Amino acid sequence: MELAVNIILGMMLAATPLLFAATGELVVERAGVLNLGVEGMMVIGAVAGFIVTAESGSHLAGIVGAALAGAAMALLFGLMTQVLLANQVASGLALTIFGLGLSALLGSGYSGLSIPALARIEIPLLADIPFFGPLLFRHEPMFYLSILLLLLTGWFLTRTRAGLILKAVGENHDAAHAIGHPVVLIRLLALAWGGALAGLGGAYLSIARTPLWSEEMTAGRGWIALAIVVFAGWRPNRALLGAYLFGGVTILQLHVQGLGIAIPSQYLSMLPYLVTIAVLVAISASPTRAMLRAPGSLGRTFHAQG
Amino acid sequence: MIRLERRPETSRAMLWLTPVLALILTVLVGMVLFAMLGKDPLQTVAVIFISPFADLYSLSELLVKATPLILIAIGLSLGFRAGIWNIGAEGQFTIGALAGGAVGLAFHGTDSIWLMPLMWISGCAAGMAWAAIPAYLRTRFGANEILVSLMLVYVATLLLSAMVTGPLRDPDGFNFPESRLFEGSAAMPLLMEGTRAHIGFFAALVAALVAWLLLGRHVVGFQIRLLGEAPRAARFAGFVEARVIWFCLLVSGGLAGLAGLFEATGPVGQLVPSLPVGYGFTAIIVAFLGRLNPLGIIIAGFVMAVTYLGGEAAEITMQLPNAVTAVFQGLLLFFLLGMDVLSTYRFRLRRRVREVA
Questions:
Q1: Which of A254, A275, B52, B70 is most exposed, with minimal Cβ within 10 Å?
Q2: What is the tally of helices (H) and strands (E) in chain A?
């Protein structure tokens, strides 16, 4: 029981940053924009969250700062792709390269410093329930935030008029434009939301999980979040499943190492990346044709005629 | 109100002017950045752009940095033209160095002129094999080559680390995670004694020449360009997309693998976990800076080599943090992509049209 709780708990902790980033990117892609710069936005969120928390002493300020920094990065991408009509794939790569460089520059005076970790909230009574108590009711506030934002995103996309318009823009931007929807504005808003969530995912790493800053600490999680969006078939509820699956793989690797099985640690560290590839292949090849559910205008440049 | 209007044809002048403008803008923004870091902007820029040309050794170091960048970027540019995004060149570079290096280590102490070519072939083949994974998964299952090739970068880096702490570790190396040094027949021949510039630079020039001939004169080049510019037309014309995907990924993987082997047996001199330093990613910028054109890529490779060496010089003489180089390179790519709008669109002033009653 104790071990099971620990494993599932570890999985949830590993999944949370992925869930933040994947939820954000899902909305962006539903609006028809492919932002490959998730890794760059996450790492900027991580460094911004750490610096603001270290300077102000307030975790809340750090969390807000990380979201704003991620959104600012996303708007830079928006300027490139929506206003200057640059190629989305190349601009996303540029955002990642720039984000990794800028975060290293900003954080160069902060590596080695430590800040108090985000405290856990124990919900009275509920936290004492055996098994479910520790799993569900003893987490950092950012964990609850990740679930809340996912639910909010699901509700927004399926239950609101604005969500419907956003999906219409993603399916066919020319048609959406023709009936009078402001395509560029909607996409910029979606990008800002995606960037803010990626920033939160980064901040979760640097102020909640390990209250430290180190260069490239996101270690490819932004790219895994992109894979989760494909895995989820662009649907929020399956993004939750995807994030927890990948979180589980990360944790499995640690537990196998803990069991003292004589495999060099590098091979175990490869697991999350190999599983990402395997899942992508399985999804792409599946008879249900998950790829066909991709938003119709995904990655295409929109230029209003006339 | 200003609006964008698509040009009937891409402007040739703008196509070549935009990289220059982007470079100038990057330098200007860089100067603001240096001022914010409390350094004299003019002096810093002078250090970055003059020190790489200060003496013969610095010039030879330009060749050292430009060689892998040009080799990798030439390969990547073929795919980028066709809309095939191999962004895992860093992994193919690592695997090329690892496999070719392992062959060299297996024949440790052998004195033969055939050893080096054998290592080149192994490095190139290993890079191709690593790139064949995304090619196969894309053509057979439709898996996205961007994500697959990128995930394999992490796998390659970990594999290199596992190998140099395990089977390939130097037996006399006091347990440090590094291989034996590449010596004698297993060391890259140098262009000039006392420098690190090696004959791999000629391989980069040959690759550029072949790519240029291929794009302009061969049917494969035509297929690549058509697939990138008009994918539907390419399919109607009966081109097999899968063959172009395979071709672009294998060529870019092979060249990246070769670049990795050159780096390990030349400037670095052994296999170490820190061998991949980001050339595979910087080469993406080089490919775009050179307008995906072989000649342009040679020039862009040298420009980028200057930023590396100049950045190192500024780190020493001006105490700039080393991350500045990466920020610089990222900014450059942004400005390049952003200014591309000038070559495919033009700005028009839209006058309010008053209806005459």
A1: A254
A2: 13, 2
The pLDDT of B291-296, averaged and rounded, is 92
Whether A292 shows a pLDDT value over 60: the answer reads: no
**What span, in angstroms and rounded, lies between the C-alpha atoms of B123 and B127?**
6
DSSP codes, B89-100? HHHHHHHHHHHH
Listing DSSP states for B2-20 in one string gives: EEEEE-SS--HHHHHHHHH
Domains and CATH numbers, chain A: 2-293 (1.10.3470)
Our measurement of the distance from residue B150's CA atom to the centroid of its chain's CA atoms, rounded to an integer in Å, reads 14
Question: What pLDDT, in 10s, does the model give residues A148-200?
Answer: 999 999 999 999 999 999 999 999 999 999 999 999 999 999 999 999 999 99
H helices present in chain B, as ranges: 12-36, 41-50, 56-82, 89-106, 115-141, 145-165, 200-217, 219-229, 231-236, 241-263, 279-289, 294-317, 323-339, 341-344
Spatial contact of B268 and B108, defined as CB atoms under 8 Å apart: no
Query: What is the three-class DSSP state of B348?
Result: strand
**Shortest CA gap A86–chain B (Å):** 6
pLDDT, position B323: 83
Among chain A, residues having any CB pair with chain B shorter than 8 Å are 36, 76, 79-80, 84-87, 89-91, 93-94, 97-102, 104-105, 108, 215, 219-220, 223, 226-227, 230, 264, 266-267, 269-270, 273-274, 276-277, 280-281, 284-285, 291, 303
- Cα–Cα dist B291/B300, whole Å: 9
Distance CA B144, CA A132 (A): 38
Q: How far apart are CA B61 and CA B308, in angstroms?
A: 10
**Rounded to 5°, angle at Cα B20 from A75 and B52:** 105
Cα separation, B164 vs B176, in Å, equals 9
> Does the CA dihedral A68-A195-B73-B12 come out positive or negative?
negative
Token couple for B247: 């071709």
Q: Say if residues B159 and A266 touch (Cβ distance below 8 Å).
A: yes
State phi, psi for A173 to the nearest 5 degrees: -70, -30
Distances (CA, A) of A132 to A18, A138, A145, B137: 22, 10, 19, 41
User: What's the rounded Cα separation, in Å, for the pair B153 and A220?
Assistant: 10
Question: End-to-end distance of chain A based on CA atoms, in angstroms?
Answer: 65
Give B 72-131 residues with CB within 8 A of chain A.
80, 85, 87
As a dihedral over the C-alpha atoms of residue A28, residue B280, residue B299, residue B11, rounded to 10 degrees, the angle is -20
